[in-house]
Amino acid sequence: MKKLYFLLPFVLLGCKSQNVSVNVKESASVSQPVEIAYKVEQNEVSDFLRYLSSDELEGRETGTAGIEKAAVFLEDFFEKNNVKPYFTTYRDMLTNFKSPAYNIVGYLEGSDPELKKEFVVLSAHYDHIGLLKNKQGDVINNGANDDASGVTVVAELAKYFAKTKSNKRSILFVFFAGEEKGLLGSKSLVEKLKKKDFNLYAQLNIEMVGVPMKRDYLAYITGFDKSNMAQKINEYTGKNTIGFLPKEAEYKLFYRSDNYSFYDVFKKPCQSISTFDFENFEFYHHPSDEFQLMNIPHITKFTQEFLPAVTQIATTPTQEITMTK
Residue ranges of the domains in the chain? Predict the structure, then answer.
């Protein structure tokens, strides 16, 4: 997550946010949850996240040899799982970075002749902040929670759709570079998509989901009141999957991740989903943000619980998720 570190000393001193959830029974027209037989495998979640946050990748700073290894890993993942490149290759070069850097972009065409003209974007940033300078001991900022955890979830969603072919809308799976440099990867990509008259329905960006919250909902969404996405996700899952986190609104997290670049250009529902609540993880932008601290059962459960939601988002005959302000 970009430029949040200056807030943490203040937030962590006294952040006891109230629990607010969206009751799935409050809507006048409630969608029925979809039954999903597909099972997310915990060992596959673990293996993927372990490599992406390993020391070999040296913190995945944009423009370094470490993030290049991550890019190759993600390209190989897409190819192995029969997710096609959206552009000529999986690599989408950033237009706003001083040295060669790439978003990794995969694509699955929708199965419906009309709905496939609309796109859902599922995304996470695969860059992090690299190596500490002039330090002794552990100098690698592995970024397991931020945001190898989100990349792992998006990869599992790509695998799911590639195997089940359950998407009537087309889906773009995007792993952004340059998020930690100022949302550069997403800013670069949206300008290209806008020129292509990209028909965006909604974007779900996954950001820091490596550890669970102690709340009566699974995750929170940024920009909670900007659309009805939270309500619809809860309808689609049949659970209180998404809740409102007051600290998210207080610190305007909607503007601090790659969802904002898409919202800024397309003015469509584009929001980030997270389980980092300022109380459950103390190693933000720190070398101790490592694989060993990630809760693999939680990440697996998170991904599994979102399958009905992303399935409905990719298949409903009308655009049920809409902006509210």
Answer: 8-313
Q: What is the pTM of this model?
A: 0.92
Residue 77 pLDDT: 98
Tokens of 77: 């993942």
Helix-helix angle 296-313:42-52, to 10 degrees: 100
3-state DSSP call for residue 225?
A: helix
- How far apart, in whole angstroms, are the C-alpha atoms of residue 179 and residue 186? 7
The fold of 8-313 is: Aminopeptidase (3.40.630)
User: pLDDT category, 171, cuts 50, 70, 90?
Assistant: very high
Residue 118: count other Cβ atoms within 10 Å of its Cβ: 18
Is pLDDT above 50 for 5?
A: no
CB 36 within 8 A of CB 308: yes
String of DSSP letters for 25-71 = T--SSPPPPPP------HHHHHHHHHHHTSGGGTT-BTTSHHHHHHH
Look at residues 45, 70, 77, 86 and name the one whose alpha carbon lies nearest to residue 301.
Answer: 45
125: which DSSP letter?
A: E
Cβ–Cβ under 8 Å, residues 255 and 275: no
* Predicted pLDDT at 325: 67
Let me know: does 241 contact 305? Beta carbons within 8 Å. yes
Joined together, the tokens standing for residue 74 give 């993600």
Question: Which residues have CB under 8 Å from 290's CB, separation 6+?
Answer: 53, 142, 144, 283
CA distance 60 to 54: 10
Continuous H helices in the chain: 8-14, 42-52, 65-80, 149-164, 184-195, 229-237, 246-250, 259-266, 296-313
